[in-house]
Amino acid sequence: MTEPPANDIASDQGPATDPPEPGASSRPRRLPPIPDALPEIAAPAAGRGIEKDIFGREPVGHPDWSHRRGEPRVFALIWMLYLMGVTITMFASFMHAQSISQSVTRPAAQRMILATMLGVTLLWPAIRMSQRPARAPVRSVLRDLFVILVPAQAVIWPHAMGVLAGWPIVLLLALACSFGAWSLVVGGLIAFSDATRRRIPGWVWMGLVLAVGLGAPLLAIASGDAGVPRPDSARPGWMLSPATTVLELTRDRSAGGPLRPVFREHWRLIGAVACVGGALLLIARAMEVASRRRDA
Fold this sequence. Notes:
Helix content is 55%, strand content 0%. The protein has 296 residues and is mainly alpha-helical. It has one domain (70-295). The model is unreliable at 41-47 (pLDDT under 50).
């Protein structure tokens, strides 16, 4: 047999390499490790562009601002602007008054407290029920309660001064407690709405909130309890709605002389409303825990 040519053997073994220099190591040279690839941020959906907040800022490390929608920052700004507008409206009503007396300041203060209560019972659920449901409904409601109730105290308690309404401390305490009680009820309905949004749409829960807010006045008119009240007695039916609660607590009782501004029936109904609101939050929390366990 004849041996193949030397050049054929070299072509089968690949390209020829230069022989190593004398004294050099024969171990193959290792390349440095390739660094891990950086995590990629999901690109926004086609045709939608990059989502920005109200200040024109783009999200950092997230494809959109969905991680911030449960936070009460924007709602806190809206609530503060609302309270500022209510306060300006009250003081603007004094512009055409010949003299500043309690006959002028108390009706204006009553309208101011009523507008604040309507913001709690209508503006708050309207904003939250039109948004994406919160992942933790009860915790989100508790954060909103802090945002709502703390600034509301600055609207209530200054009316103890004589230059404003000059209401007694016990009346302002009853107003503050009624704000807390009805906020618990509305917060419980918001938590129920977030927990059951897959089965029940938000407008159904908003209709229930409107029924709670307008049910007592309609019942009072239908039962004839909307007439001229007696200054020495309470109207329990008017404590079953947030708006009429403010009207009942702040109504003028001067015709009967120096009387108690808040009756025992008022305190009992405020406590009953607070118990209902607390029960709604506890039930919503139980539904939230059961839903998480079922999904797990």
